Amino acid sequence: MPPIENDRPIIVFRTEGGPNIGLGHIRRSMTLARELQKQGATALFVLPKDSVSLEILGREEFQTTTITTDKDVDLAQTLKCMESAGAHAAVIDAYSVLDFSRMNRLAFTVVIDDLAERSLPVDLIVNGGVDAGSITYRAAEHTQMLLGPKYSLLREEFSADPARRHKQDTERVLITLGGSDSSALSADIITWVQETLPDARVEVVIGAFFSGATRERIHHLTQGEPLVQQHDNPTHMRELMLACDIAITGGGQTTYELAATGTPGLAIRAADNQTGNLRGLSANGALRWIGDCKDGNLKERLAGALLDLAPNRRAREDMSRAGRQLIDGAGTDRVARAVLKRCAA
Q1: Domain match, 312 and 334 both
Q2: Domain holding 84: CATH number?
Q3: Mean pLDDT for each 10-residue chunk of the chain (345 residues)?
Q4: Is the pTM of this model over 0.85?
Q5: What range does the domain containing 302 cover?
Q6: Long-range CB contacts (< 8 A, 24+ apart) of 160-166?
Q7: Which of 225, 260, 267 is nearest to 246 (CA)?
Q8: Rounded-to-integer distance, Cα 208 and Cα 21, Å
């Protein structure tokens, strides 16, 4: 990674994505990187090699460097990239990074973290989760913390007023389980929604890391079916959310986008690290956590929740209002300003 010769602060992002990790880290790192560049910085990415992740970053014209996944070599290569770029700051959004001591000495260090399962003696911790205020971090005395939904990292368009109009009956249902679908649930959910709400239009999102078998099942269900449409890794997620009356979602970053757009959501937990999101959002009335992807009675739970929520405009309005009150969509701007302020100090 060659040095960049200008007077813009240089921010190096160490993140990762893949079939087992999904796109959450990549997406929110890109979101913060875009905002930092908008506010006058230069963002560079360092990550383990993954063709899909690199393609996504390449489409946004970010400069990238790939590193090995061996933890000791990983750190050395990351530090070398930071040194050669003349980094003013490093933003770490990867659970695999554990040693921050040498990184701290080299640049202002930011960690985006959801779990507080490791020691984080860094300069700034960002956790935009609804439950973040109840988490205890092992940090340094000087560590600044930006915690809670005020700091959720969403793209700029999610800060706009959604101006949603709720219909009496549910006409469109969005299915969006995230960048990957390791349990191959999306196709089943299409069938369950059709059985429960046969007149509703179904919009299903295919994530970048969906397996070929899952894609084929979805394609088979949607082919020749006028009420089902598939969207392959779409860039117009906000528009899709606003067009739908209810979303069936995984428990990751998408839940905050749904809240920001006032989209009533029925959420399914796909991983343990989604628990805090789902507990906090459901406690605040922004969505309903209906179960886990491995639950044997998930079909019955989903059908029951749909039958309850679909004809209930008041309940959907309440959920929409709660989500928008919780997530205003301006968190990325706040975090970017905090990072650049510390870089300039």
Answers
A1: no
A2: 3.40.50.2000
A3: 64 92 91 96 95 93 91 87 94 90 92 93 96 92 96 94 90 95 94 97 95 94 93 94 97 95 96 90 97 96 98 97 95 97 84
A4: yes
A5: 160-326
A6: 160/329, 162/242, 162/260, 162/261, 162/262, 162/324, 164/242, 164/261, 164/262, 164/263, 164/320, 166/245, 166/313, 166/316, 166/317, 166/320
A7: 267
A8: 12
